[in-house]
Amino acid sequence: MSTYSKAFPDGLPIGDAWVPCESSAPVVFPYDSSLVAQAPVGTAEHASRALDAAQAVAKEVARLSTGIRRAILLAVHEKLAAHREELENLLVLETGKPLVDCRVEVARTLTTWAAAAEEVAHAHGETVPLDLQPSGAGMIGYWTRKPAGIVIGIAGFNYPLLLASHKLAPALAAGCPIILKPAPNTPLATLSAVHLIREALAEHRVSAAAVQLVTGGVDVGEILVGDPRSAVVSFTGSAAVGHQIAKNAAPRKAVLELGSNTGFIVAEDAVIPDAVDAVLRGGFYANGQACISVQRVLLDQKIAKEFERQLLARICEVIVGDPRSADTRVAPVINEASTERIMDWINAAVERGAQVLSGGEVRDGAILPTVLSGVPTDAQLWCEEIFGPVICLRTVPDLDTAFELVNDSRYGLQAAIYSTSLKTAFRAIEELEVGGVVVNEIPGFRSDIMPYGGVKDSGIGREGPRFAMEEFTVTRMAIIRP
Description:
Layout (H helix, E strand, L loop, with lengths): L11 E3 L2 E3 L3 E6 L6 E7 L2 H19 L3 H17 L1 H12 L3 H21 L6 E2 L12 E8 L2 E5 L5 H15 L3 E4 L6 H16 L7 E3 L4 H9 L3 E7 L2 H11 L3 E5 L5 E4 L5 H11 L13 E5 L3 H11 L21 H16 L3 E4 L3 E2 L2 E2 L2 E4 L6 H4 L6 E7 L2 H9 L6 E5 L3 H10 L4 E4 L19 E2 L4 H7 L1 E8 L2
Parallel strand pairs: 7-8, 7-10, 8-9, 10-11, 12-13, 12-19, 13-18, 17-18, 19-20
Antiparallel strand pairs: 1-2, 3-4, 5-6, 6-22, 11-21, 14-17, 15-16
């Protein structure tokens, strides 16, 4: 068994207590398939019970003062910071991500809670000049923001603690009770965090039912999403699941952070070593299991050969091994099924003429950092989300073609371009059909305070504490004739 000491009570945090579960499921260390822990598995009955409890405390949470909400968020930040190393090591075990990436995840989680605490005081409304129309002469109008109600947060497996925090912290900041459903493969760090959050709530005399967590399968998700008491569903995961969630939640709001197949353009005037470094950093972090990791690399024909030469010369810098080591950059992906799928996509592309320039094989359970060229644009490896340590190179004659190929996708989360031309940079910002354009940095760059989200099949709505708070609140208009 992998070394792990459980830091939360048995069962699930539902209502004001931890409720027993009859079933459990193993959480395994992807590196060697050893058992990390048995995690509680919730049921549809648990989901219904959580909804009842959330409804019962919704008015209490909505009435919390700005000062109390800020104090709770800061208290959570302090508790998480006190358990920083413990959470980092737990994330390594349940996700299989390299330690360096798990350290980044915890650091970003702390930033998210601190930022949410500061945004509490910035939630405000505006006056409205009702006398713009004759009927409003002499009237006073203003709007404020009110909590929308119960938030359902559903997080992905790749950054379980951070993705959960981008739902938990803004919900509390907005005055909304929240029920979290973590990914079945990776519930442990989130359970630990929710335990700490509920401690902070109790210390401020707020019902623990303001933050609940229910694990389980599709039946649990359907109950949480489909219940009319759920005001907002915030989901991070695959496009297919997100689309179904949006249908099940309708007509209530769904905030969807879905997949992508990120485009990365290297213009003819780019600083090639910098662009190569960005691909090495941005294509393989988190074992390639990030929705904004580098996937499609579009190279101007004038620099394509030199870029490829430098990239292949440096690919050995991406160390493959045990994710517990601080030196490791790539380890096995989340499970064998994902490994098989990724390898199937690689082999299918090769059968259609793609060339493997590096990697393309599994060693000690890990897919080696893989670089291909000549991948057909209708191959899954090009047009869908790989979610693994694989990048595809393509030579293009000019920027027009590069922009067209980036936009020729059903996805649009973030994209990046390397260029020393300010004109080219601003053209990319104007023309690339994505939620965020990154210039001279990896497309996986995300500041946790910025508005983050996509267009097209990459989702709808925005995260980042300020913007998620807007998603979790509704405007209330005051219309007064003195």
